[in-house]
Design a protein that fits this description.
There is one protein chain. By secondary structure, the chain is α/β, with parallel strands linked by helices. The chain contains 12 helices and 5 strands. It has 2 domains: 2-10 and 194-269, Helicase, Ruva Protein, domain 3 (Orthogonal Bundle); 29-191, Rossmann fold, CATH 3.40.50.300. Strand 3, helix 6 (139-149) and strand 4 form a beta-alpha-beta unit. Mean pLDDT is 91; it is low at 272-277. Residues 44-171 form the ORC1/DEAH AAA+ ATPase domain.
Length: 277
């Protein structure tokens, strides 16, 4: 099916994929703002908090910012699932930095802190602790992050922290019991998605990367995809691919509003909860 779609539309590869190198990403205003803040947080070894709805591009922005940092001078520690709790985070940090985690909690905390400091001081590589799905962090896990940032009487931190999560992360961190961590945040950004014009540019950009320079989506189709996907890249990708399939099946040369509406209907149906028996 993929080969048929590529051949039908004169594409060299399928567009709207997720595996693009950072240098090939479409730079919307929202993306650029997030990347700039994450980059600043890395440079200052601070805490950066990026929030936004599912599919808005938080992880992509973090990947782009981290890629811009000099790899030889940084060590990425990526935690995709923070539900492992405070101990799991400490364990992951120590393991990622090449040590064997202590079995005892009392020893594991200073071990993680010392490992982070040693990576920067002895090896000259600043650790970047990037935690995805940050809204799933428990209060204990967030407090654990605060303890890790306690270094040299708060004069500096040996590592940078990036927290990515849905809007509830910001709400959780605003609670009084987490005020100490909230006050340590260096920069933050709430991502909202692309404008209508940016969605049009995003679609053209992905088509060009796939070998198609001529227009393929009509303006009406793009507007409908943007409105339905609310400018969120992941939703736009899904709708655009579905619209391409509908267009190919109908034997049309252009993705028009009808094909886009078919994609919207299919996508909305797929995301509806199953009826209760």
């Amino acid at each position: 099916m993929l080969d048929k779609i590529q051949s039908y539309f004169g594409l060299t590869t399928m567009p709207f994929g997720r595996g693009l190198a950072p240098g090939m990403l479409f730079r919307s205003g929202d993306h650029a703002q997030a990347v700039a803040r994450i980059g600043y947080g890395i440079a200052t070894r601070g805490i950066t908090v990026i929030t936004g709805e599912v599919g808005v591009g938080k992880t992509v922005a973090a990947r782009a910012a981290i890629e811009r940092a000099e790899p030889a001078r940084h060590h990425l520690i990526y935690i995709p699932d923070p539900t492992v709790g405070a101990r799991g985070i400490y364990h992951h940090i120590v393991s990622a930095l090449g040590a064997r985690p202590s079995f005892h909690n009392a020893a594991l905390v200073p071990q993680a802190r010392d490992a982070l400091a040693a990576e920067a001081a002895e090896r000259g590589r600043v650790p970047i602790l990037c935690i995805d799905e940050g809204h799933l962090l428990s209060h204990d896990a967030l407090e654990a992050l605060r303890l890790l940032t306690n270094h040299r009487l708060d004069t500096e931190s040996p590592f940078a922290t990036i927290l990515l999560g849905q809007p509830t992360l910001a709400t959780k961190m605003a609670l009084g019991i987490l005020a100490a961590l909230e006050q340590r945040i260096t920069v933050r950004r709430t991502m909202t998605g692309m404008t209508n014009e940016e969605t049009a540019g995003y679609i053209r950009h992905h088509l060009q990367l796939a070998g198609r320079s001529d227009p393929l989506f009509t303006d009406d189709a793009i507007s409908l995809i943007h409105d339905s996907g609310r400018g969120k890249p992941r939703a736009v990708n899904r709708l655009a691919i579905s619209a391409l399939i509908a267009t190919c099946a109908a034997g049309k040369n252009l993705v028009d509003e009808t094909s886009a509406r078919s994609a919207v209907t299919e996508t909305n149906h797929d995301t509806q909860p199953a009826p209760t028996p």
